[in-house]
Amino acid sequence: MPIPVNALPVFDGHNDLLLRLWMQEQGDAVADFLHGTMNGHLDMARIRKGGFAGGLFAVFVPPAQYMKQSKTTYREEDHDPLAITEAQIALLHQIADRSEGQARICRTAGEIKSCIEQGVLAMVLHIEGAEALDEECSQLDGWIAAGLRSMGPLWNLQNRFGTGVTGGFPGSPDSGDGLTPAGINLLRLCNQKKLLIDLSHMNEKSFWQVAEVSDAPLVATHSNVHAICPQPRNLTDQQLAAIAQSDGFVGVNFGNAFLRADGKRDEDTPLEQIVRHLDALIEKLGEDRVGFGSDFDGISVPGELGDVAGLPKLTAAMAQAGYSSELIEKLCWRNWLRVLEKTWGE
Fold first, then answer.
1. Cα separations (Å) of 263 from 61, 132, 226?
2. Interatomic CA distance for residues 54 and 10, integer angstroms
3. 276-309: burial string, b at 16+ Cβ within 10 Å, e else
4. How far apart are CA 15 and CA 41, in angstroms?
5. What does the mean pLDDT of the chain come to?
6. How far is CA 258 from CA 155, 183, 234, 283, in A?
C-alpha cells in the first residue's frame, strides 16, 4: 500500500517503536504493528495514513527501574543489555521479513530514496545508548552487518563511554563529565565505519569533544532550541553554531517538554510551537540543515498531532506559516537524505 498522494513523505530522525514492541508481553507484537492498531504513536496503518516514509529506529536498553515498573514478567537476571539490544535488532528484521515488501532495512541514502519513491517504509537501525557495547567495541561489526548505520553512545545515564545529559527543567546542558577514553575511541570507530554519531543525549562537554574529534557532520537527531525551551537536552546557540559550521543537522523533537517555554509535558501544546523551533533552527542553521526527529513512542506529543497519522496537520501548519512547498519538502525528507549521504559517503 503506497503512501497517500495527499500525505507528503516524512523521513524522521528518531522513534522508540522497537522498545515498545520489545516491552509488549502478550500476543505477537510484530503482527500487531503490521496488521493491527496499537497503542502508542506508530503502527503500519497510521504510518501509511500520515505519510511516514521511514526514519531512524532506535534500539534502547531501558533502566532496570523502568523495566521493573513497566514489565510484569521482569526479573533482575533479565537485565542483560546485550540480550535486550539484540532482541530489538531482531524485531526490526522481523518487521522487514514479515511485511510482504512494505518495509525494508536501509543502509544507504540511495536505498532510502528508493523506498520513498516506491512507498516502502525505510528503516534505519540506530542505537541509543551503547550500554550493550563492551569497551573494545567487539559487538560493533556484528551490529553493522545487521544494518546499524547510526550510533548514540550515550543516553541520560553514565556508561563506560561517558555521561549523558541530565538535570531538571530549566537547566543547562553542562551537566557533568564528558566522554571517557573509551568514548573517544568509539567516536573514531564510528568515523572509520561511516556511522552517524548522534549528539541528542550528550552533555555539553561530550558535545564539544565530538566537535573536536569527529570528522563527520554534527547531527542531533531529536533535539530542540534551548533559547526557546531551556531543557538540558536542547541545544544552545553556541552548539547550533558548531553544527552549522560542520554542515550538520538537527531533527526537531515533537515532545511537549522539549517544545514548551515552561517545559511542561502538557498535550495542550499547539503545532505552532513545533514551527517556532523550526523557524529558530532555520535561522541558525539554514534551510538545508533542519528536519524532524519526532521521538514518537518515546514522549508525549501535542494533542493536535496525536500520532504519526497527524503528520499532514503539521505540514499544513508549516504551509500556513508561510513555508514554501520546496522548503517543506526539504524539512520533511530531503535534508535528512543530504546529511546521511554526506555522513555515510553513499
1. 25, 31, 11
2. 7
3. bbbbbbbebbebbbbbbbbbbbbbbbbebbebbb
4. 9
5. 95
6. 16, 26, 7, 19
Tallying the residues shown for the chain, one arrives at 346
Please count the other Cβ atoms lying within 10 Å of the Cβ belonging to residue 26.
Answer: 7
Residue 143 CB contacts under 8 Å (≥ 6 apart), including other chains: 85, 89, 125, 127
Going along the chain from its start, the domains and CATH numbers come out as 10-344 (3.20.20.140)
Nearest alpha-carbon partner for 273 in 284, 286, 257, 296: 257
Which residue from 233, 224, 226 is spatially nearest to 202, judged by alpha carbons? 233
Q: Which helix (H) or strand (E) holds 142?
A: helix 140-145
Q: In whole angstroms, give the CA distance from residue 150 to residue 139.
A: 14
**Helix, strand, coil fractions of the chain, as percent rounded to 5:** 40, 15, 40
Secondary structure of 102-116 in HEC code, one letter for each residue: CEEECCCHHHHHHHH
Can you tell me whether residue 333 is helix, strand or coil?
helix
Identify each DSSP E strand in the chain by its residue range.
Answer: 10-15, 52-60, 103-105, 121-128, 148-152, 158-159, 162-163, 196-197, 219-220, 249-252, 290-292
Beta-strand ranges (E) seen in 168-248 are: 196-197, 219-220
Query: Three-class SS of residue 58?
Result: strand
Question: pTM of the full predicted structure?
Answer: 0.96
Give the per-residue pLDDT at 107.
98
Q: Which amino acid is at 161?
A: F
Confidence tier at 326 by pLDDT (50, 70, 90): very high
- From CA 40, how far away is CA 51, in angstroms rounded? 17
CB 55 within 8 Å of CB 124: yes
